[in-house]
Structure formats: structure tokens, C-alpha cells
């Protein structure tokens, strides 16, 4: 298992045509600079290719004999796909396996667009065929219990959330919180407008959230604090799961912008390293390459974010049925499915 993305490489620049009446020394200098630039680009392209192949070897889900062959008509560059993306809190201090970030993403290669539905962690979930009513973030850990569930964890997660949103889920990717922090650090941090003062301390697991309201650059630890913040024991206001979902989308938006920037492209090696160390997925390498080729340059304007909302009735969030049906319709529309 495993997952993630990489930037496009550029080809060798064409040599400038020799213009008459220009000093020969100036022309030679220009050609030398172009040669150096060309070698630099070629070297960077080779380095990127090397890092990408290392990422695929480490992350992609292939069998022991070699790569899984994906039929051409089923590649992400041809056919719309759905991925279940999970953010996993597996810190040693907490001894938990809670998926506090849950997103279902449909992608369409014809329009180079995506729809992202965020499910609050405390959502009350009940799905036919699974004898369990619990919070959305608890099922990943529950499916690891072989006494209750014989199928692989990934298969159960795809089936469960696919039934809930009424769309087929092709793949699942799990990102641990260290991976989130490492990717943010690899791009040099992200600019975020923190919406409120945030202060929370928990000596049991080492949590120490201390953020001030306002526009600022956050490093990996601070960005994780920003998306995780829920309550305070130091006098600042509390946040709901719905506000956390909005922050997650904001961070993803800013991270995508940073990765596509010149600064992000230059730091591609560190990004790949952060991804490979902290992400697991069941996407085969051939399919992962197709995803990268198709969606690497996706514009944020072509990503539709759909946060599910509802009402809090302890201990659950109960999702509004009209919103749930609207989210299902948007996912299906991105896949090119009719109601």
C-alpha cells in the first residue's frame, strides 16, 4: 500500500539563433549561459525522475513479482476515479488509530477537476451490512479487529464510505500526522489567516497549541495545530468539527498553491521524501503515475470543496440529510454519473 504527487519536468531549451551584427563574445557568453541553464534543467529533470521512481517504489501497491498492470481504459488519465483520503492520528502518546481527517475525492480527467467531500470526525455513521453505529473516525481502528471483520481494512473502508456517499471508491490513501507536518515543512511553510486565538495544552500527549489570530506563515507543527484545534483549557474559544473541516480545506488550498509555485518545484525532493515516509495507499504504481500526470497541475478553481454539516447532539454530529444528498449528487456529477 501507499501514495502521492510530483511536478512536471521541462525539456531542454532551444538554442538561440545567431543574430548578425552582434559581438561574437556576447553571443558566446549567451550560448554558454543557455548551455549551463540547459544542463541545470536536465539535471533537475533527472533528479525529479529519480525521486519519483523512488517514491513509486516505496509508496505504490504492487505485487511481489512486479507492477500491477492496469488496463488502459481504467487509467486515471482516461476514467474518472474516487479516492478515500484519511488523516490518521497514530501518535505513540495516544495509542489510537483515529482518522480525524476523512475526505472522499472524485476526479474527472476530461475536465481536470475534482470534488472533495469532507466528513466531520464525530459524524454518526450507520451503514447497511456493518453491525456498528459509531463516530466516523473510529472505523479504521475497528476494521483492524479480525474477530469482527475478516476482509482487509482497505476493502472495508472503501465499501463503508462508498455506501454512505453512494459512489464507488476505487482507492484509499492514509496519511499520518507526521506526513502532514513533513510536507508543510518541505515546502517551507504555508500562509494562513488564523481565524481566532488558539490555546490548548495536554501534557499527557505533548500537545501545546498556541496560535494568535491573524495572517501568518505556519510551519508543519503549527499547521497541524491549526487544523486539529477544537477546545481550550487556557481561556480561548472553542471550535466545532465543521470549523475544523473548513480549516483543513484552507490548508489544502494553500499547500497546493505552494507546491505548484517555483519555490515548491525547487523543493520537490523534500516533498517526495515526506510523502514516501508517511503515506500508504492501495494505488498501483502505473495508476499512481497516471494520477500524477493527469492532475499535477490542477487549478484550485477546478476543485470543489463540499464540507458536510449537521447538528451536534452528544456524542455525535448528525448530518443534515439534504446536505448529504447534495454531496452525493456533486460526487456523482464529477464522475459523469446520472442520478
TrEMBL record:
Which residue range or ranges hold the Cell envelope-related transcriptional attenuator domain? 99-261
Superkingdom to which the source organism belongs? Bacteria
Q: Which Pfam families match?
A: LytR_cpsA_psr
Ranges of biased composition (kind: Polar residues): 1-12
| Alphabetical list of InterPro entries matching this protein | LytR/CpsA/Psr_CW_biosynth, LytR_CpsA_psr
Query: Which residue stretches belong to region Disordered?
Result: 1-21
NCBIfam families listed in its UniProt record: lytR_cpsA_psr
Tell me its family.
Belongs to the LytR/CpsA/Psr (LCP) family.
Q: What is this protein called?
A: Cell envelope-related transcriptional attenuator domain-containing protein
Naturally occurring in which organism (per UniProt): Paenibacillus swuensis
